[in-house]
Amino acid sequence: MSNSISPYSGKLCNLIVSEKESENLKQASANYPAVTLTQRQICDLELLMNGAYSPLNGFMNEAEYESVIHTMRLKNGLLWPMPVTFDVPKDFIEKGKIQIGSKIALQDGEGFMLAVLSIESIWTPNKKTEAEKVYGTISQKHPGVYYLNEKTHAIYIGGSIEGIQLPDSYVFDTYRRTPLQQRAIFAKKGWRNIIAYQTSKIIHR
């Protein structure tokens, strides 16, 4: 490990709680309003919990979101060009009487509890501004803009995450590793120069 560079921001986060805390969270979350996550939300949650999105400790609150949208930096000045947000339907907020300080349970499509989100912010984003700042266009022909306008809900909520368990994965299990696991592999093999390749067409500026 001594040959490895420091994690981005110098800290590798692990948002998964201990086994004892997990049991307590599962019991408590039975009384929380629950959200069934989309596949994209599950992916973001996994990357938050396993530290790939370090130093984020949850979905961005409004202040962090605005900072990233307009300056491409977190509020602490760290370069971060893409917002990591959590969208919910307006009626979920209204029917569940969700407010700042509320806790909500995050579950997958099969009803397995993955995490608890403690809400710090609830807001209605300006999606036109987000599209212009993040994707450089408001054209619906752009897949990122289309997804933003047609697939995400009107309300964003942000706050810290307490992870209960990582989402189950049924594909590419051989290649799915947490940042900590990857670092252990690099150290074991004695690798010093590592190249990462991002193939997504949507994440760009």
Automatic annotation (TrEMBL):
It is an enzyme of class 2 (transferase). InterPro entries: ATP-Sase_PUA-like_dom (IPR025980), PUA-like_sf (IPR015947), Sulf_AdTrans/APS_kinase (IPR050512), Sulfurylase_cat_dom (IPR024951). It comes from the Bacteria. The keyword Transferase applies. PANTHER family: SULFATE ADENYLYLTRANSFERASE. GO terms for molecular function: adenylylsulfate kinase activity; sulfate adenylyltransferase (ATP) activity. GO terms for cellular component: cytoplasm. This is Adenylyltransferase. Keywords: Nucleotidyltransferase, Transferase. Its EC number is 2.7.1.25, 2.7.7.4. Residues 5-165 form the ATP-sulfurylase PUA-like domain. The keyword Transferase applies. Gene3D superfamilies: Sulfate adenylyltransferase. Residues 174-205 form the Sulphate adenylyltransferase catalytic domain. GO terms for biological process: sulfate assimilation via adenylyl sulfate reduction; sulfate assimilation, phosphoadenylyl sulfate reduction by phosphoadenylyl-sulfate reductase (thioredoxin). It comes from Leucothrix mucor.
